[in-house]
């Protein structure tokens, strides 16, 4: 039995299920099954976080070469609990910012990204530096494909493209050849057995580099399957690799045994080919349908595949700003060390720090993949305090700081922008803004909204400069 819920579900503790809503969500019709669900999932509090022992069976896939968040900050994956209100019992499924498929006690939780596939596609495009509308892709997608197949397919292509810059994995093998040309050393034993009297050919032994058949077969099978998820356009990214795989793969069925041999091959210990470990991990998930459409493994209590969508949103914003503001250096997750050599010293990581190449002006943003409709409740208390801490750290050079969201509706400028930090009227301006998105939005509209957002940022910068200039005079 499965249920689909979005990321950040029940964040405001306002989306409880009653009995009927819960049965409908799980598509359960028989009373015996209804009682079993209630007993299995909601008889006690169940929580999975990034520091939970249950994560031994979870694979969390990020979009940055940065692991500090998972190691240092405990983040919610899913929480199940019930609450009695008078005579009525309510049920809650609370999720964090990880999308994917999670199984618990044989029940499937399909955690979807908010705001629709158009935004998801656009963010993935930025991760891969494609920046296209993907209309061609959408026209050729398999209708059975879900967004998790789509994400992992993108990551596979991206990692394969990068890993194969120096070629596909090869290893040296000793080969004996009988021909009119001598390569390497003459094989004396073979010469005495077969080449006397001399007939114009000699046996020679030499070392040569050869492809690893298991790795080729796994990669080709995965590349072929990607077409079901991304369409045919992806081949332009890996055209050379695709041709090599097509010409040299055995075209045999790729079993789990072959996948295991490829992943554990000793050639991957070579630093040159080490990146292929990640490529083969993605290939395995693709070939096994990510475990997202297969039957649950009831021998494991909790397992699944998850994607850190908050990281994806951060990368998207970072690259969007970097493309538009060419006079600024844009860094993502810049490390800040505070209170060095003291027992409470620690590291902080603002999502985006912009520094002007000539003036040295600084802008600090934190990206939040959470609901924002212009209500006070939408701004999380810890997020609010955190961004102000970052801004204070960069004083006096910081001119602007704020929180960036995917917006469910446009914010009013006079209600979302403070003239000066803490509304002081001078110094650093603080604001909350973002890109207007929606589930039914097409790519053209989304790109137009991106440009509107970037123009608002530019206007904010100009206002800050005018404000500071007046102050100086």
Give your account of this protein's structure.
With 473 residues, this protein is of the alpha+beta class. Helices cover 37% and strands 24% of the residues. The chain has 15 helices and 19 strands. The strands form five sheets. A six-stranded mixed β-sheet has the order 12-15-16-17-19-18, with helices on both faces. It has a five-stranded mixed β-sheet with strand order 1-7-6-11-3. It has a three-stranded antiparallel β-sheet with strand order 2-4-5, with no helix packed on it. A hairpin with a 5-residue loop joins strand 15 and strand 16. Helix 4 packs parallel to helix 6 and helix 8 crosses helix 9. The N and C termini lie far apart (68 Å). About 4% of the residues have low confidence.
Give me some keywords for this one.
single chain, 473 residues, alpha+beta, six-stranded mixed beta sheet, 15 helices
Which helices and strands occur, and which strands form pairs?
Layout: E1 2-6, H1 19-26, H2 31-42, E2 46-49, E3 58-61, H3 68-72, E4 76-85, E5 88-95, E6 98-104, E7 107-112, H4 117-127, H5 135-139, H6 147-163, E8 170-179, E9 185-186, H7 188-194, E10 202-211, H8 213-230, H9 239-248, H10 256-263, H11 276-287, E11 302-308, H12 309-324, E12 328-332, E13 336-338, E14 346-348, E15 352-356, E16 362-367, H13 381-393, E17 398-407, H14 413-416, E18 417-418, E19 429-436, H15 443-472
Parallel strand pairs: 1-7, 3-11, 16-17, 17-19
Antiparallel strand pairs: 2-4, 4-5, 6-7, 6-11, 8-10, 9-10, 12-15, 13-14, 15-16, 18-19
Mean pLDDT across all amino acids:
82
Helix content class? 25-40%
The Rg value, from CA coordinates, equals: 28 Å
- Total strands: the figure is 19
Instruction: Please work out how many helical segments DSSP would assign.
Output: 15
Main sheet characteristics: 6 strands, mixed
Q: Give start-end ranges of low-pLDDT stretches.
A: 132-145, 291-296
Query: Termini separation (Å)?
Result: 68 Å
From the spread of the alpha carbons, the general shape counts as globular
Strand order of the largest sheet: 12-15-16-17-19-18
**What class would the helix/strand composition place it in?**
alpha+beta
Note the beta-strand portion: 15-25%
